[in-house]
Amino acid sequence: MDFPFLTVIALSPIAAAILILLLPKERGENARMLALAAMLIGLLLSAYVYISFQSNLPSPDARWADTLAFVEEVAWIPSVGINYILGVDGLSATLVLLTSIVGLGGVLISWSIEDRPREFFAFFMLLVAGVQGVFVAVDGFLLFFFYELAVLPMYVMIVIWGWEKTREYASMKLTLYLLIGSFISFIAFLVLYFQLPDYSTAAAPTFDLRVWSEANFPLDLQRIWFMPLFLGFAVLAGVWPLHNWSPDGHVAAPTAVSMIHAGVLMKLGAYASLRMGIQILPEGTVYWMPFIIFLTLINVIYGSLIAMRQRDMKYLIGYSSVSHMGLVSMGFAAMNLNGFLGAGIQMVSHGIMTALFFSVVGMIYDRAHTRSMDELSGMMKALPWAMVAFVIGGLVSMGMPGLSGFVAEFPIFLGVWEGGSLNLVNTFAGLNPADFYPILAILSALGIIITAGYIMRAIGSVFFGDYDEHHWHDMRPLLAIDKATLVMFVVVLIVIGIFPSVIAPIVESGITPVVNRLQEAQLAYTADTTVLDTVHMAATNLIHWLGGA
Amino acid sequence: VLALVPELCLLVLAIVIIFYDRALKPAERRRLGVITGWGVLVVLLVTFGLWLFLNEPSNQPVLLWGGMIRHDLITLVFRVMFLVAALITALISTDTEELQYGEFYALILMSTIGFNLMAASGDLIMLYLSLETASIPLYLLAGYAKNTERSSEAGMKYFIYGAFASAVMLYGLSFIYGLTNQTNLIGVAQTITAQPDAPVLLASVLVIVGFGFKISAVPFHFWTPDVYEGAPAAVTGLVSTASKAAGFAVFLRVLTAGVFGTVEAAQEWWAMLVAMAIVTMTLGNLLAIWQTNIKRMLAYSSIAQAGYTLIGLVTLSVDGTGASMFYLLYYVFSNIAAFAVIILLSNLVKSDEISDMKGLSRRSPWLGLAMMFALLSLGGIPPTAGFFGKFFIFKAAVDVGLWWLALIGILNAFIALYYYLNVIKVMYLYRSDEDEVMIPVSRAAKVGLAIGMFGIFYLGVLAGPAFEWTRNAAEAFFVG
Hints:
The structure holds two protein chains of two kinds.
Chain A lengths: L4 H18 L7 H25 L9 H4 L1 E9 L4 E7 L1 H20 L7 H20 L3 H22 L5 H29 L13 H4 L6 H19 L7 H8 L2 H24 L3 H28 L3 H22 L2 H32 L10 H4 L1 H15 L5 H15 L14 H31 L16 H19 L5 H20 L7 H18 L1
Antiparallel strand pairs in A: 1-2
Helix pairs in contact in A: 1-2, 1-5, 2-4, 2-5, 4-5, 4-11, 4-14, 4-19, 4-20, 5-6, 5-11, 6-7, 6-11, 7-9, 7-10, 9-11, 9-12, 10-11, 10-13, 11-13, 11-14, 12-13, 12-18, 12-20, 13-14, 13-17, 13-18, 14-16, 14-17, 14-19, 14-20, 16-18, 16-19, 17-18, 17-19
Chain B lengths: L4 H18 L8 H24 L7 E3 L4 E3 L1 H20 L9 H19 L3 H19 L6 H32 L4 H8 L4 H18 L8 H8 L2 H25 L9 H22 L5 H22 L2 H32 L10 H4 L1 H15 L5 H15 L3 H27 L13 H19 L1 H13 L5
Antiparallel strand pairs in B: 1-2
Helix pairs in contact in B: 1-2, 1-4, 2-3, 3-4, 3-10, 3-13, 3-18, 3-19, 4-5, 4-10, 5-6, 5-10, 6-7, 6-8, 6-9, 8-10, 9-10, 9-12, 10-12, 10-13, 11-12, 11-17, 12-13, 12-16, 12-17, 13-15, 13-16, 13-18, 13-19, 15-17, 15-18, 16-17, 16-18
């Protein structure tokens, strides 16, 4: 058997967590070394996985099952069809690498944490393991397993190490939102499991997503269960109006957790809703996406307008995350190659950018003990590195060409514009994407202008202006380790911006099977059902079901 | 035949403990628990050894002693649960001074013998006798802390309720005997379908009252919170796990053998059981939310857990009953682990309020972690065992078409998360005034907790083999 790369990537943080907990109390500071080692191993392996995947890209018309690389398969609970199957496609290979980078940054940024470092790093490792696990899982059940594993440490970490003022409220809110979301998805998922076309006939039922990704569920089933399955995960991706947990959670969380949270965890939602919702139920996707795109538009515009209003830097970035994640979902809603490609790159770009923002804010807060834009001023003098990093992050956020934000956002707008050619009259509300997708593309591009507004304002008031030597007399300069973290993030953002070819082909190879499936669903789309028909269909389905009891 | 070797070993161990008690100086009394623990561990190994090497019990059920004992894999699964429960209970009670008496441990062992025989009984008479053998020591144990009023109250309450329930059950059993002129479960099942419906239903209801009391199902649950709160925490651990599992063991045996008639013939009691499952889950969870005492909270939570287990029961399928057994197995590990932490804490602070757990994660990080995982397991969050426990139950329910029952179960599991998370919040978020006071944890208690944690993670990560095991065992329910 080959070296189990993905198992090591996903499980080595858990091993590190156990080792960290076994450390004697007086050697608690060694925890960070162990955590760093685990993250470095993860980074090296995921870089290897990424590079070797890139050098051997699958052909565009391959089935999803054939695009998977590094597949590992071990029987787990065969009697109910649960198996330990790992594998990566182009998209997940990219996201695994992203998680490794942000995870490493998180460890470096919390290097000097003093309150119970052992527990902190142990929970942080569990969080990373959960996230990596979701990205590499090819078994639906395993995916949920890791998903829950990722949510739980968030709660504990925010409660213990979070910001005193809001942590209790925010952590409970976050946990309830995410658990309810995953619970709704899980119900939808189980319903589909029992309705899998060959559930009753096949020798053994299965949770293998490779089978699911080619299953053709009946049309009514797809249309009814797409929304719960997709939206349950989309809670984690911060789709309006289910985004409310996210800014509060960002603000209450300690810096490293905010980084993982906004940088990677929210992508988990987008990734899972793509993998479980869109890929499994293409006809449901085609039916509902013209509605969902309105939600994502609200995300983009409303998120940035609220961000405009914030005076607390963390809230500002929290709402800007909501706005940027809206672009990811909007890319999905475009239902074409450009949209998905942009969404995939945006996940990476936004992941690194937000991690950068949160680490800068964390550095400032550690030194100035405030995050209020009213109090901070002239920070450029004290923390020039932070200023440069923040400005670059800000430019990415505005979609400046030459940086990763442009590479990500441009295809999304292009994709939505191209959506004007989708002629799918939705009888539910008489919507036809052809009529309004181009308008939405223009409107959402306006979001960028608002983004420029709040980012400029933040930069102006925090970094420029008068520096009060007297007030900030105990300001410490950045540590070398902080600078290294910032440099790492900035380099990634610039490299993607200048050489999109390091990321675009691999992401494209990952999303092509999904897009192909959506194209088929679009071709097969029939608009001959009326509103009443759909309701009737739902009702018959329910009655049929009740009769089955 | 080697069928009863584990029980005989337990009996010998109990006698040894009583005599050994006399030979000890007061300062050495805590050795009693350790010895009991070792002894039970040996019995556990003997049980496994008999199964692995001598194929005893075998896959084929064997009727022994004129049909009194039915020796099969079900007996084995339940024996393992009871022995594990007794083992951990013995280990974690060693440090509580008022429990360091030989008879305390002997009583635990006696009631374990009773549990084992309950799970093995193949005859109505044996069923009743073993149920009493198990219960009477428990009444004594519940009132064992003689100088606390609440403990005496708990013992008395438990006894009165228990005696009443068992009298009602005996009344029902006498009906069954009168109707069929038989006491063997299989024999009863074969003749009872020919009987008129009304008396069979009456008898079934009366017997279910007895079982409902044992498993603390609503509406026979009223004793649970008071007894759980009043009894010494170690005893509560035993009552809430082993005793409940034993109740389910006989319930499963009687129901699947068809003593109440087949489901097709008697929809009434089946509908009643389904209703009982729903009410038990829902009421248990809703009441648990409001509790401020951790033992009372776990009492209501254990009522709710009985409700989930009942779902597996009412499916009356191999998968469902196997899932129920898996559920009980996980529950034994998780619940006793939770009680172990409570004991260690209350040895120090002498109270069981949830607010006393403030700052536990600082005072003793390992205890905090153990409690967290035990509660998460009870709440059903992966990677702990509870997740699979619930999953198997709900899947079995959907497979036989009871998807709405599974849905109610899932909704309930969600409600339950609230109060489990709340305790975790108290442990991790708040600080107490005694942050610096460490909680002493003896080696025996550490071993006990480690066994519990091992079970939680073993069943949570490698649930497959364990579920296969209980599922294979469950096939014996349906072999005539």
